[in-house]
Fold this protein.
Amino acid sequence: MSLNISTNPSEDESTIRSLLPANLFSVFDERDASKRSTAVQKTYTEDLVWYESDNIIHGRAALNARASELHTQSPGFNFHADDIMSVSQNVGVLRWYYGPEDKPDMIRGTDVIIVEGGKIKALWTTIDNAPEK
């Protein structure tokens, strides 16, 4: 896969700013499989690559399966976005936190996206702090 980080952006900033919360809430925080599947189709390119700290996911179907797996592993957890989004060229950054109602910031992280053709082509997720396994 080749990625293009543009110095002459063809992606509208508002598109990138709408994709950041769509990625977080419409996909990763959505427990309804049908709604999540529809959001995955709208949000990502078919050849998406998602880089987790210990895993690389290829394609929409695999990303959707991994999102479902996260719900199974973490029942009662929800995502929350920090209020600051950063956008430069065709790159977007959003910090978030994830946890149960009584400790909503149990896990903190950052998503970095590259957008091509109005959809997310690549996603990097970093985890700032994670509970011991």
Notes: The beta strands are 44-52, 55-58, 78-88, 91-99, 107-116, 119-129.
